């Protein structure tokens, strides 16, 4: 594009997203009264429970439900999440919650929505619902995550079911053929990426899912962690991350521009079609790849540490968790279901079936380590190398991520300079904090 648009106010926060911004006006000093443990006879008289959960994880939960359904007489129905997390999903939930309504009893909620939902009074506190033994089962690295991302004013509103670390996946079979090794630095990303890139055949060194809303932010934050930056501060580390991503796409052409329209499903498909040499991805790909029995082999999906940027080898961790909407149709049944799903033995079964349902809990680590589970081994590899940085926090996380999304997009499409993107990003973040 030859013209650069004039950046004005937060035009990117328009339309239905206003429902989320308006939620802050609903925050008050009201306290919720938790209810006692339900009696099975009461639950049996209720309608089925409705659970909001990503489609790829539903089968794993269905496998453990017979015990719950036998004990309570309840059936559980599922609703799938949209293919991209962020504003689409969160606006849908916020619109329902703001109307004092919820179509769901239990929600698998992302980091994008939970901080605002807690502050708006739209989630039930879980301290008197989830037993203390469950909270004690989380490892020490998870405790500050729970305090920042799952709690508000001393009360817990969400219980983690996922520890999401962006691992660095490699085609070791390709490396062996070329006599090269996995890139260990940003400089080597460019060097090794060029070896494998063949644009005429649609083969690239690397890629990611960068579709807005939300996914572009994820990768920029990943690179910023390796540069020692905080994307919500639009600092020097953020600038280095944006420039590196620009150079991979525009300067060195080892990263397809089409990734800016890809979600994670599209990203994975490129990898499974033998079009990508290495990439960052969430651990759910381990389950998806194993189902590709005609394609999968261990050497096609090896894990190494993230290539080091100016601040070293880093990625960041986030995750999803279970919560109960304040306006859940069946609150008593919802409480019993969330207690069941977070029970240690059930959590182990869920983690064994689906990495999206695995997190840093002692029970999970002990059980899966004994089984040689690769996910636990990768967690340990990254932890031992101090390669995991905390997810950058902002109380209005969806809106703040939208700022990063939009400023990064404008820069990557040559609509503004890096200097302009950084300056405007800081201004827009400051507006959110007013």
Strand order in the sheet with the most strands: 2-1-3-12-6
Major sheet details:
5 strands, mixed
- Secondary structure: number of strands: 13
Strand content: 5-15%
**Gap from first CA to last CA:** 34 Å
Low-pLDDT sequence parts: 1-45, 83-87
Helix content: 40-55%
Q: Tell me, rounded to a whole number, the average pLDDT.
A: 87
| Number of distinct helices | 19
Radius of gyration: 22 Å
Structural class: alpha/beta
- Global shape: globular
What would your notes on this structure say?
It is a single chain. The chain is an alpha/beta fold and 434 residues long. The chain is 45% helix and 9% strand. It contains 19 helices and 13 strands. The strands form 4 sheets. It has a 5-stranded mixed sheet. The chain has a 3-stranded mixed sheet with strand order 7-11-13. Strand 4 (151-152) and strand 5 form a beta hairpin. Helix 10 crosses helix 11 (236-251), helix 15 packs across helix 16 (362-370) and helix 18 packs antiparallel against helix 19 (418-432). The longest helix is centred in the first third of the chain and has 18 residues, at 55-72. The radius of gyration is 22 Å and the shape is globular. Mean pLDDT is 87; it is low at 1-45 and 83-87.
């Amino acid at each position: 594009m030859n013209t650069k648009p004039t950046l004005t106010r937060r035009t990117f926060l328009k339309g239905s997203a206003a429902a989320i911004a308006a939620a802050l006006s609903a925050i008050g000093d009201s306290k919720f009264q938790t209810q006692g443990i339900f009696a099975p006879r009461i639950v049996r008289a209720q309608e089925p429970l409705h659970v909001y959960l990503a489609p790829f994880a539903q089968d794993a939960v269905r496998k453990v439900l017979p015990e719950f359904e036998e004990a309570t007489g309840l059936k559980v129905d599922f609703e799938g999440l949209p293919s991209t997390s962020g504003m689409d999903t969160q606006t849908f939930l916020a619109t329902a919650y703001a109307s004092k309504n919820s179509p769901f009893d239990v929600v698998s909620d992302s980091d994008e929505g939970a901080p605002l939902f807690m502050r708006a009074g739209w989630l039930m506190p879980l301290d008197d619902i989830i037993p203390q033994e469950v909270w004690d089962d989380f490892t020490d690295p998870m405790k500050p995550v729970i305090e920042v991302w799952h709690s508000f004013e001393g009360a817990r509103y969400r219980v983690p079911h996922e520890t999401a670390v962006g691992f660095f996946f490699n085609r070791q079979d390709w490396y062996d053929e070329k006599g090269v090794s996995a890139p260990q630095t940003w400089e080597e990303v460019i060097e090794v990426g060029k070896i494998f890139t063949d644009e005429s055949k649609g083969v690239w060194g690397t890629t990611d899912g960068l579709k807005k809303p939300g996914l572009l932010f994820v990768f920029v934050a990943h690179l910023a962690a390796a540069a020692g930056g905080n994307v919500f501060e639009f600092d020097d580390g953020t600038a280095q991350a944006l420039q590196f991503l620009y150079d991979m796409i525009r300067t060195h052409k080892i990263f397809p521009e089409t990734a800016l329209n890809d979600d994670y499903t599209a990203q994975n498909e490129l990898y499974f079609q033998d079009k990508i040499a290495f990439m960052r991805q969430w651990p759910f790909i381990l389950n998806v790849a194993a189902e590709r029995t005609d394609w999968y082999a261990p050497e096609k999906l090896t894990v190494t540490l993230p290539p080091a940027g100016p601040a070293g080898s880093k990625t960041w961790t986030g995750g999803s968790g279970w919560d109960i909407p304040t306006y859940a149709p069946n609150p008593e049944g919802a409480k019993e279901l969330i207690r069941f799903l977070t029970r240690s033995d059930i959590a182990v079964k869920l983690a064994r079936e689906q990495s999206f349902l695995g997190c840093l809990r002692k029970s999970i680590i002990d059980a899966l380590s004994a089984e040689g589970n690769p996910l636990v081994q990768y967690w340990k590899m990254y932890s031992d190398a101090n390669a995991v940085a905390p997810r950058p926090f902002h109380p209005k996380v969806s809106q703040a991520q939208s700022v990063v999304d939009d400023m990064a997009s404008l820069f990557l499409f040559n609509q503004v300079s890096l200097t302009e993107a950084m300056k405007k990003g800081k201004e827009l973040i400051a507006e959110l904090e007013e």
